[in-house]
Amino acid sequence: MKYFSTRGSEERLSFEETVLTGLAPNGGLYIPEHIPTLPQNWKSDWKDYSFVDLSVAVLSLYISKDEISQVELRQLVEKSYKTFRHPDVTPLKKLDDKTFVLELFHGPTFAFKDVALQLVGNLFEFFLLRRNANKADGAEPEKLTVVGATSGDTGSAAIYGLRNKANVSIFILHPKGRVSPIQEAQMTTVTDANVHNVAVKGTFDDCQDILKSLFADREFNSTHRLAAVNSINWARIVAQTVYYFLSYFQLQSQLPAGTDINDIAIEYVVPTGNFGDILAGYYAKRMGLPISKLVVATNENDILARFWKSGNYEKVDSTVTGDDGSSGATAPADGSSDGKQGTATSGVKETLSPAMDVLVSSNFERLLWYLAFENAQGNQAEKEVEAGKLLSGWMSSMKADGRVELPTNVLHSARKDFSAERISDEEILATIQSFFNGPASYIADPHTAVGLATAGVVAKQNAANVRQIVLSTAHPAKFSEAVSRALEGSSRFNFDRDVLPEEFRGLLEKEKRVIDVERPDVDLVKGVIERVVGHQAGKIPGSGSV
Asked: What is the predicted pLDDT for the residue at 545?
């Protein structure tokens, strides 16, 4: 299996090269040259597989045995998921006869990002150790400078996946003051010598733009051997496809006796910011997993919901105008908490689900390539070239104008597999309260609440045989203010007793190490990386400002 850029290129990379490169030189994202189909008897052969077994089975379809042997792959997977607290890794919990929650927060940082980033960290280490083992005695070892941007959970998950890895330095950019206190502490209290937290005065989208600029700078990229941990890295996506398969078999085992899963339509509802989590479901569906619909659940930063309604992919809703005649969607929403991405000028709204406060969804580019390919003309090679050209043009328009109006046939193709809904902060609070007071007495974090609220909206139009699986992306303790606010009137609720994990106690009081950057300026961030990487081995830069 080889991989190529969504924006068009004759370059074809191995899995190893794809993982270590992250972002293509032309700004595109890597995708596989074809989407593999499942083995003929996968339903029976995989039915009793553990998460580790399924990971090996699924990943083997995308990784040549010449690159990573079956023995090596199993060792990598076992090492990655032994850090999880639940034996199923991602357990499926039944809320009622038609609604289930897939809990993805049982990893070391209590967020779904752990599922992919524990594996990515071990892949980086595996590839580096192998490359360096083949070098001549005395040769300079190959090193990686891993850079990432986070709206909260990616940062800590990446840090926990890469802390203390040999020949790897990791720099995580987060918007200063715009992640929750717990999220910030999870990142900045990790004081391993190879971990560097960079607080940028700006928004998550500013951090993401800096990240893309770093990768686009070929000289800087080559000098420091940059690697990506954000979901632009293909390894993140393919790792996340596994829990879609596991949840299928978990659902099958939880159906009433006599119910055939082949008579059930499975709908996945996914809280969505950067589009990576739901994109993994799209790949699973294309591989052959029977998914009836993938539902994009967005908060008030609803660029994706608006696309599925209109076909316009635009940062600011052009159909809404303010009192002064300006376009809407720029004012912060009321009731924001737990990490704020919005500013009065950024176009990002502050919401109760801050990890989804994203203006432009990076991974949406991968889906757009497939939609362009589906509607292109010619043979396979010709359609690939045309799709790359179309996609490149769309992304250029998005960067220059903040919007692109996609063809009607592209929108129709997108609606075959997806639908989308927008959920307000008020609905988030009501949903947390409703599920806590419901029969299952389930405590949802605000992002999961976006998914549950969306599930409730679309369920009204569903057929009787539909079962909904809502992806639960974070532990409620990571967003204490929103959860406590929603449940403050309940005498049955006690945050410390009902929610707070032992691992979080005292976390906010621990020593922190962070480098402040006074504005979203790529040159300032380059300076930080050059200064830190230039330090002698073993000398840990302290906190500071640039």
From this structure: 65
